[in-house]
């Protein structure tokens, strides 16, 4: 059956990463973006700067929130973390795609609460980076294997780069969500990302949601940048 997390509009598919130093800076950007954006990612930088109350503030303002915590610990700790996150009203949170951690998260998650996304391979990592930390498989193979594990564990979605989205879609079928970071408009700087893709290409490859940070947050006109990405998504759809 279709996922309850299926996006309704092109604007719903754009998740702006609030990778900013303070909750005030993040809140000011949300105010500036207004109705141009309906979905935000809150990650470790903002959480460790006191940003957890911002999650509830955004939910109270009718926004969706992706609380990107990349949980990985012993089963009991992962379970407790998921329960706490569910109480914040976030739409999504992330678990590193290790089978035991994913199963613990799925079993602990209160029914009808936060969606669980499996982090496969960070988009900042190349095949060479993976070899440096002991993985013999290239990124595409490792992502596919972890997507299979996430499907078996009952996760709600996968986080992978656009380069792997088409293969992941074949593995997980039509109902699991695919969330794609490393989105860069054509001609945009890749920064510290390695496996990047344009918005239109990622949607065409099978992504449901696109996580966009600096191309919007560092733009001279963030509203125009967000609207341009939404328009590109609409065209790709």
UniProtKB/TrEMBL annotation:
What organism does the UniProt record list as the source? Faunimonas pinastri
**Mind telling me what this protein is named?**
Orotidine 5'-phosphate decarboxylase
Its recorded reaction(s) are: orotidine 5'-phosphate + H(+) = UMP + CO2
Gene Ontology, cellular component aspect: cytosol
E.C. number: 4.1.1.23
Q: Which protein family is named in the record?
A: Belongs to the OMP decarboxylase family. Type 1 subfamily.
InterPro entries the UniProt entry points to:
Aldolase_TIM (IPR013785), OMPdecase (IPR014732), OMPdecase_AS (IPR018089), OMPdecase_bac (IPR047596), OMPdeCOase_dom (IPR001754), RibuloseP-bd_barrel (IPR011060)
Q: Where is the Orotidine 5'-phosphate decarboxylase domain?
A: 13-229
The pathway where this protein functions is: Pyrimidine metabolism; UMP biosynthesis via de novo pathway; UMP from orotate: step 2/2
Question: Which positions does UniProt annotate for substrate binding?
Answer: 19, 41, 68-77, 123, 184, 193, 213-214
**Keyword terms:** Decarboxylase, Lyase, Pyrimidine biosynthesis
- What role is this protein assigned? Catalyzes the decarboxylation of orotidine 5'-monophosphate (OMP) to uridine 5'-monophosphate (UMP).
The positions flagged as active site in the entry are: 68, 70, 73
Record gene name: pyrF
* Biological-process GO terms, alphabetical: 'de novo' pyrimidine nucleobase biosynthetic process; 'de novo' UMP biosynthetic process
The cross-references to PANTHER family, in alphabetical order and at most eight, read:
OROTIDINE 5'-PHOSPHATE DECARBOXYLASE
Annotated coiled-coil segments of the chain = none
Q: Name one GO molecular function term.
A: orotidine-5'-phosphate decarboxylase activity
Catalytic EC class:
lyase
């Amino acid at each position: 059956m279709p996922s309850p997390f299926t996006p309704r509009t092109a604007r719903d598919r754009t998740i702006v990463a609030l990778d900013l130093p303070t909750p005030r800076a993040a809140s000011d950007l949300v105010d500036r973006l207004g109705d141009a954006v309906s979905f935000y990612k809150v990650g470790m930088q903002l959480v460790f700067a006191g940003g957890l109350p911002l999650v509830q503030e955004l939910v109270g303002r009718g926004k969706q929130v992706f609380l990107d915590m990349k949980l990985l610990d012993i089963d009991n700790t992962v379970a407790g973390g998921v329960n706490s996150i569910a109480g914040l009203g976030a739409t999504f949170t992330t678990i590193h795609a290790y089978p035991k951690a994913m199963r613990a998260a799925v079993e602990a998650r209160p029914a009808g609460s936060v969606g669980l996304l499996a982090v496969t391979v960070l988009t900042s990592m190349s095949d060479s980076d993976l070899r440096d930390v002991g993985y013999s498989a290239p990124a595409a193979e490792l992502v596919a294997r972890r997507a299979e594990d996430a499907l078996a564990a009952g996760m709600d979605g996968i986080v992978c780069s656009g380069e792997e989205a088409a293969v992941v879609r074949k593995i997980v079928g039509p109902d699991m969500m695919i969330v794609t970071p490393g989105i860069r408009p054509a001609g945009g700087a890749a920064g510290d990302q390695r496996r990047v893709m344009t918005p239109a290409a990622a949607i065409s490859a099978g992504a449901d949601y696109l996580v966009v940070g600096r191309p919007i947050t560092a733009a001279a006109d963030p509203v125009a940048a967000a609207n341009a990405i939404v328009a590109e998504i609409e065209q790709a759809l």
